[in-house]
Amino acid sequence: PPGRRGAGPADGSAWPAERRRRRTGAWLAGLLVLLLVASVGAGAWWFGTGRFVDVPGLARLDRAQATARLADAGLAATFGEESSETVPAGRVVRSEPGAGSRVLKDRDIRVLVSTGPPPVPVPGVVGRTGAEAATAVRDADLRPRLVEQPSDEVEEGRVVSQAPAGGTAKRGSTVRIVVSTGPAVVEVPDVRGRSVGAARRILREAGFTVRVRSLGVADVVVQSPAAGTRHERGTTVTIYGL
Question: At a CB cut-off of 8 Å and minimum separation 6, what does 73 contact?
């Protein structure tokens, strides 16, 4: 009957308050569905592509520039070295993984920095003529520097020693080549008026061999070769005393 508690309108529809509750519930259910879909989509994006970034190009940057560019991409740098014929020393040759690779954020990227051209073998030139040695060193992409030095063992014009003596060296670096000028030539000291013992000592210290012709009663009066002349070390100087 009309007016009974809990009865609805005569057409059977819900009362306005109940309809509002139903509409609110439907709206909340729809919102929850949208939030669920958004969460699933965000999770799929993160686990699919959101965690990944592209490795930026680093070629020919210096260490500081490479570090900054990787940091901007969410990556970190670790450095190594590699020789290069084309990239100047101190500049990036390449990275591992390479530019354009997809990697996880915060990953360390190995950056290889040029040490310049690779080292070249140093030819052994001891015993060759100076000209031959210089040519061999130039052919090895090195620079010869010839210096002269007396030698009692190596004939004039031949190489006595070199530095470095072998192994490898930086391309374009210098190889020092010592070329013999033959036995050393020195001036004969004047020992006239000296005792025979003193004369012998002075001549030997100068590199000469000494022959004595003396009666043993007076100082040296004559020497041969003469004082002031130049001779090879080891030459015999004869001293004459009374």
Answer: 53, 54, 55, 56
